[in-house]
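Technical note accompanying the year-one report. For the benefit of new consortium partners, we illustrate the data format agreed upon in the data management plan: each record pairs a sequence with a structure-token string. No post-processing was applied to the example shown here.
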Amino acid sequence: MNSTDRAIIELHAIDREASADGWLQALHPVGKLLVTLVYLVVLLSFGKYDLTGVLLMGTYLVVLMMMGGVSLCLMGRRLWPMLLLVGMIGVANPFFDRQPLFGVGGMTVTGGMVSMLTLMLKGLFSMSAAYLLIVTTTMDDICHALRCLRVPAIMVTVLMLVYRYLVVLLKETSRLRAAYSMRTPGQRGIHFKVWGSMVGQLLLRSIDRAEVVYASMQLRGFQGEFKPRHDTPPRWSDYLYALAWIVLFFVIRCL
């Protein structure tokens, strides 16, 4: 199984997790999206030396993983390339910011060490918050929440189409790789000389598929905007969930 097939399987698995029956999954998507946006804004507003405040913001992630039944190991396995890249932010800080802040066991902790940890945690927590939103909320619900927050319809429609047909694009890529492997037995990977032609073929196939999809959407009455499947009003628990978290975020920020 190649990386493209694994990506397709992971996308389907995330869709199943987001559609599962659970208390967190059943919350109104507007509240969950609003809490995530406020969390990111408050998290990124901390100063580069405010390591304690950033650590306290991790409480939200721990509670959400427990409420939603999200596996920490599975999240790490899915996001490790991005988490590794984000974790490298600020690695050079200890070399440039050598101002001593305090001492621990005879070792001097500099401002660069603290700012490095703060930047790393900000990146890791931001990625984790976005992941928790995706695995507990379907893309249809996220797009519906964006429209409720007055995001332009064209942007939401593009986001919906990109997500829905990402699997189709990956399957086309998998077919091209399989055809290339059958014509070049024993060769590992794809030779760089054919990268251009394969990308061109993938582009032409995508254009043809896009025309067919758009014609099918027009036949089904598409008028430029997707309608939500379940447009239920928020409940008192949805308001309480959003209000409790937003108040807690600002309390932590003001400490």
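Partners are asked to follow this layout when depositing records. The two ends are 50 Å apart (CA to CA).
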